[in-house]
Write a structure and sequence with these properties.
alpha/beta, five-stranded antiparallel beta sheet, 33% helix
């Protein structure tokens, strides 16, 4: 999962860019967690919280605090984030180089979507980000799944249910054992929290009171015998990222 911030005072532009980035992620099998900010002041008020974003899209021309100033504030706390300026003019290009902006995207251009796609592809390449996929023969038919979009697997009555984030949550089924799937996914950050649940650690939001809560709000029971193991694995994973 990649965390992205978009800061633009034009709400229509803000929503359009969010939709385009979400669509790109869906097509590529990548999950983007996107936060939007309608003013520069709201964004820079995060302070050290700006560290959480790997990619930041900034409009240059905003009334309260312009994009160049925001970028300078970002660089005070975060040297690693990829900054992309989204603007109607390239006249600030020299200033952008001073804050290591990776791209300028011109608003309103007929090639805006393809330019955005190229920009994100370039960033992913620099991040050395890899997309791991696996093909399963589901009862609904063969399907290649991006493991990053696989939230969890539940064993139910000799059948496994794969909960996959696509344009909406989809459930695919297969007749197999959870032991087999666990072995097949053992190097991909999945954890067996229960005899019936195999969970993607990327989407484990909290482990508390013998319960695992996922980012979509799903709550799954953790048996007492597994609780310490799951808690330790979750804590170690969060420290790693």
């Amino acid at each position: 999962m990649i965390k992205i911030a978009i800061c633009d005072s034009e709400i229509n532009d803000l929503n359009e860019l969010k939709e385009l980035i979400s669509g790109f992620g869906l097509n590529k099998g990548i999950v983007f967690e996107i936060d939007t900010f309608s003013s520069g002041g709201k964004f820079i008020s995060l302070g050290i919280g700006m560290l959480q974003y790997s990619i930041i899209f900034l409009d240059i021309n905003m009334d309260e605090v312009d994009g160049i100033m925001i970028a300078k504030k970002i660089r005070e706390v975060n040297r690693e984030a990829f900054i992309v300026f989204v603007t109607a003019s390239v006249k600030y290009a020299l200033e952008g180089y001073k804050v290591d902006a990776i791209r300028y995207l011109l608003k309103g251009g007929k090639n805006f979507e393809s330019s955005m796609d190229e920009c994100i592809n370039a960033i992913l390449k620099k991040m050395k980000y890899t997309i791991v996929t696996k093909t399963f023969i589901f009862n609904e038919g063969a399907k290649e799944i991006a493991l990053e979009r696989l939230l969890y697997i539940e064993s139910r009555l000799h059948k496994l249910e794969f909960h996959v984030m696509e344009d909406k949550m989809e459930v695919y089924t297969i007749y197999d054992t959870l032991n087999n799937i666990e072995a097949a996914l053992q190097d991909n950050d999945f954890i067996r929290i229960h005899q019936s649940y195999l969970v993607n650690l990327k989407y484990l939001m909290s482990v508390d009171r013998y319960q695992a809560v996922l980012t979509d709000g799903t709550a799954l029971v953790i048996p007492k015998a597994r609780y310490t193991y799951v808690k330790d694995k979750y804590t170690a994973f969060r420290r790693k990222i």
